[in-house]
């Protein structure tokens, strides 16, 4: 990332004539569509602007960016709506969060698809909600009525919130990060959900199949793993271990939403692995990604694939 590319970012953000009513990505450089800005994103978090850098830029880049931020605040739209502009150094070991302007609020509540999600903005990799999965959560909300749902690698339970809002009978969330599940419980409370319909299992999946089966069979299984989690999950090696256990977890006409967000792994990987490990699962479609996440190579972006049990 070089300072010479910043006018392109400036032009893009100055074209905004109103800020969204709900959380949105405003600029997606990681889709490789903006030369020189491939490692920067800008998100609207309901009054806070979050700029994220995924690679350390040239030394002159950040001072130039700070000067540009000052010019944005002079724009009436920004002056009247923006409370703070934050810079998140995602590539640094401490994931430093820098306040470029305004008042910093670490605990942030945002709205997506009329649901409330609680974010933690600070020195950590992720804030609690992956914005590129917006259409996936919307699909779950529209298709969860009266279903028993299993949410694997649940993180802060975004899919679970969507499922309960959509009328799911029960959602079982599994994630080895208990702190993330605690945030998920808070997300449900923020939406005034009945927590008696939600289970939180803070376990490593591959040691917990018995616990998972206990609450089945499931009408909908959501699999949204990290690409790599040291000591517990490597996508290309371990995804198949999940898929081969699906038949013992699923109801007769169950659906599976299987996701991959690794640029080096394409949709066909999942289609082929599913055909090999759980051949009764039929590929239905790939869900669209939100338009603001345009990628020069669609197979490098998020892949959310829907399968249905063929009986």
Secondary structure elements and their pairing?
Blueprint: H1 6-14, E1 24-28, E2 40-45, E3 48-53, H2 61-73, H3 76-81, E4 84-89, E5 97-102, E6 107-112, E7 115-120, H4 134-143, E8 148-152, H5 158-165, E9 170-174, H6 178-190, E10 198-201, H7 209-214, E11 218-223, E12 228-229, E13 233-234, H8 235-243, E14 250-260, H9 267-277, E15 281-286, E16 303-309
Parallel strand pairs: 3-4, 8-9, 8-11, 9-10, 11-14
Antiparallel strand pairs: 1-2, 2-3, 4-5, 6-7, 12-13, 14-16, 15-16
Helix pairs in contact: 4-5
Question: What structural keywords apply?
Answer:
16 strands; 311 residues; single chain; alpha/beta; 7-stranded mixed β-sheet; 5-stranded mixed β-sheet; 2 domains; Transcription Regulator spoIIAA; transferase; SAM-dep_methyl-trfase; Rossmann fold; 29% strand
